[in-house]
Design goal:
By secondary structure, the chain is α/β, with parallel strands linked by helices. The protein has a single domain (2-132, 140-283), classed as 4-Layer Sandwich (Metallo-beta-lactamase, Chain A). Helix content is 22%, strand content 24%. The chain is built from six helices and 14 strands. A hairpin with a 2-residue loop joins β7 (141-143) and β8 (146-152). The N and C termini lie close together (5 Å).
Length: 284
């Protein structure tokens, strides 16, 4: 399993000279199975560059999407996803136990006039809004060599985190997940610890400082201190800080990462910590 980060910024895109190293595009991940299957998580602004890259690969024609939730920073890039305009591609949408029509509604709404000049009905790809592989075994959905499990986020209006497993390796993605406040439908902190227990890779929302969280508690995002403590308690192998605040510069993120690494060291933990950056590729 290979994970590539095409966008890791939170809330709104933040291009500019102070975000060049970690990137300013909002959430989008690409996951490749050992069989070569393509999975995409979220359609933030980073998906535009992903689409350009996929079009250059002549053997790719099937793409499977997972959406964490329908807030704008996780959807706004879809109208600029090149493969959606080509009849070559079959695009399937999987997103936890959403109603099948919900995802189509989310995507088509942002392309309605007067918001966008091209309607969803003009897209040429073959879309499938019913996940034909959704045959869950012990809560997991088998998708070839990869198994996927969805579970609730602690976030306003809800959402889903995802656990991807292949050949004994596990990747957990928990963006927009507030550990300091349990939103309706969300899990407890203790439950998130157990879900992440022993994961090979965890990417977790780490948007706020402790000071900022005094003003933003209940907004649906975690402090990087809370996210770090979760990674340590769960005993994950690698921990990536994700959903960077739009006001966080590259230098700020360097300092944030160093703080988290020191906290991990003080806890006597072997967790490897890094701040996610556009273009990062991680092999499991």
């Amino acid at each position: 399993m290979n994970i590539k980060i095409w966008g890791c910024r939170g809330s709104i895109t933040s291009p500019g000279p102070s975000t060049l190293r970690y990137g300013g595009n909002s959430t989008c991940l690409e996951i490749r199975s050992t069989e070569g299957n393509v999975f995409v998580v979220d359609a933030g602004s980073g998906i535009r560059n992903l689409g350009k890259a996929l079009i250059k690969e002549p053997t790719v024609s099937a793409i499977r999407f997972f959406f964490t939730h329908p807030h704008w920073d996780h959807l706004l890039g879809f109208p600029f996803f090149g493969p959606a305009y080509s009849e070559k591609y079959k695009i399937t949408f999987c997103s936890g136990p959403h109603a099948e029509g919900s995802i189509q509604k989310y995507l088509s709404h942002q392309m309605e006039a007067p918001h966008y000049p091209i309607s969803f009905s003009n897209l040429k790809a073959k879309f499938n809004f019913s996940c034909e592989s959704l045959k869950q075994v012990n809560g997991c959905c088998p998708l070839g060599s990869i198994q996927c499990q969805a579970f609730p986020l602690s976030h306003p209006n809800g959402g889903f985190g995802f656990k991807f497993s292949e050949h004994g390796k596990t990747f957990i993605f928990l963006t927009d997940n507030e550990l300091g406040f349990q939103h309706s439908g969300g899990l407890t902190r203790a439950q998130y610890v157990e879900l992440c227990r022993g994961a090979d890779l965890l990417l977790h929302d780490a948007q706020y400082t402790d000071e900022e969280y005094g003003r933003t508690r209940g907004w649906g995002h975690s402090t990087y201190r809370d996210a770090t403590d979760l990674a340590v308690e769960a005993g994950v192998k690698r921990f990536g800080l994700f959903h960077h605040d739009p006001d966080r510069s590259d230098d700020d993120l360097d300092r944030q990462t160093e703080y988290c690494r020191k906290r991990i060291q003080q806890a006597g933990s072997p967790v490897e910590c890094f701040a996610c950056a556009e273009g990062d590729q991680i092999d499991l």
